[in-house]
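Inverse folding, one chain.
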């Protein structure tokens, strides 16, 4: 009954205290979730080694006759395959191979948003009848990627899926692929998809779905999103070419050898060129050109700067909100304590012991913080971000505010008792 009487008598200031404390903790929770989301944004787009120098590697067989002769030669294709393997095995250079070649898919279950060119100025063909297979076919957006690029850009799946990179074989009964997040509900894990990769018919099996908003750096675009793409893994080694397979092997080899080289900062451009020259000498393949991809570093730096500056601004605002809230809570506590002072003095003069008196003075404090818990629970249910890990420091902060509140009331009560004791001893 005393608690109810206290609540009625001090309803407005108690409500103000609940709102101020609740807003403080809710904004703190929002800062925690924003900080976590910015970390996820950076970690999703970049690996821990993303602050690197990036170089473009392309073949320099520009003459059509020379290019055709190279692709028609099994020994030349073997040289290229050896160079690719040596580059992939380099201790310091990471070779990132990716290519957004559309893939014709037979009896495609999805709609036009997955078609190559959809949403751009490019012409879209729509579903068509493939003369070779006699099946309805759609050219869908597809990205072919090697393991180094997949790991460098921290691509992950929404379900525990591990691609068997060492066993990727387009001649196998099925070849695993990943689907962008927009494909969920269109295909299921384990479904088979029949398509044509570089003019070779391949049966793919859905191994998993990428996390939403998965992206890579591709052709000067730091956020090349893959939500509506199928992702086809490249083999870790170029398959051996033969007279019977050289057409497909040649297309695959030149698709895989054109990519980016991520070099650590301590390696200069001359160092990178020297390492590639050494690999070329060892393998016999030197028909390549090295390009510096400066736009990667520019966009990488700008992206991190924007994220960091936004986080810094949010933290500064939270500090201001926290300071204002703590000052407001301090003055509300003093106001509420002043309202209770006559009752506390009467109890003290009636012989109430200090410990019991302190317990009585804490009732409104506990009522207020109970209201804060209710407000925080309601806000957590309404807010779009539900992050239990971000909630933990918020609860800890709430406990700290409660302890500070208790200590403040103890200090106010002790000063009141000292003042009254000195006054009662005066003649």
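Residues assigned per position:
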């Amino acid at each position: 009954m005393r608690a109810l009487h206290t609540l009625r008598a001090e309803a407005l200031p108690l409500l103000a205290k609940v709102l101020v404390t609740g807003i403080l903790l809710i904004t703190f929770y929002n800062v925690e979730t924003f900080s976590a989301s910015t970390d996820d944004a950076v970690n999703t787009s970049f690996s821990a080694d993303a602050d690197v120098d990036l170089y473009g590697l392309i073949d320099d067989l520009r003459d059509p006759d020379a290019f055709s002769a190279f692709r028609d030669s099994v020994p030349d294709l073997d040289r290229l395959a050896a160079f690719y393997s040596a580059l992939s095995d380099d201790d310091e250079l990471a070779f990132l191979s990716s290519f957004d070649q559309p893939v014709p898919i037979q009896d495609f279950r999805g709609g036009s948003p997955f078609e190559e060119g959809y949403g751009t100025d490019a012409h879209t063909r729509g579903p068509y009848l493939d003369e070779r297979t006699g099946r309805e076919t759609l050219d869908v957006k597809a990205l072919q990627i090697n393991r180094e690029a997949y790991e460098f850009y921290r691509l992950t799946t929404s379900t525990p899926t591990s691609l068997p990179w060492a066993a990727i074989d387009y001649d196998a009964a099925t070849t695993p692929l990943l689907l962008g997040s927009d494909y969920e509900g269109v295909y299921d894990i384990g479904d088979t998809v029949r398509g044509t990769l570089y003019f070779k018919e391949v049966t793919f099996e859905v191994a998993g779905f990428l996390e939403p908003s998965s992206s890579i750096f591709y052709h000067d675009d730091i956020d090349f999103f893959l939500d509506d793409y199928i992702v086809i893994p490249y083999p870790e080694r170029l398959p051996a070419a033969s007279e019977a397979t050289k057409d497909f092997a040649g297309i695959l080899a030149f698709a895989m050898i054109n990519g980016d080289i991520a070099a650590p900062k301590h390696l200069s451009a001359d160092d990178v060129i020297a390492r590639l020259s050494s690999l070329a000498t060892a393998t016999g393949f030197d028909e390549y050109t090295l390009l510096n991809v400066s736009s990667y570093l520019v966009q990488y730096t700008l992206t991190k700067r924007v994220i960091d500056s936004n986080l810094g601004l949010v933290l500064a605002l939270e500090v201001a909100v926290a300071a204002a809230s703590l000052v407001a809570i301090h003055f509300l506590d003093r106001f509420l304590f002043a309202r209770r002072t006559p009752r506390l003095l009467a109890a003290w003069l009636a012989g109430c012991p200090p410990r019991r008196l302190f317990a009585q003075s804490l009732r409104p404090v506990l009522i207020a913080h109970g209201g804060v818990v209710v407000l925080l629970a309601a806000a957590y249910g309404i807010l779009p971000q539900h992050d239990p890990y971000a909630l933990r420091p918020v609860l800890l902060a709430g406990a700290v505010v409660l302890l500070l509140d208790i200590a403040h009331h103890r200090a106010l009560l002790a000063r009141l008792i000292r003042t009254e004791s000195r006054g009662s001893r005066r003649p």
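The chain has two domains: 2-44+303-425, 51-290. The radius of gyration is 33 Å.
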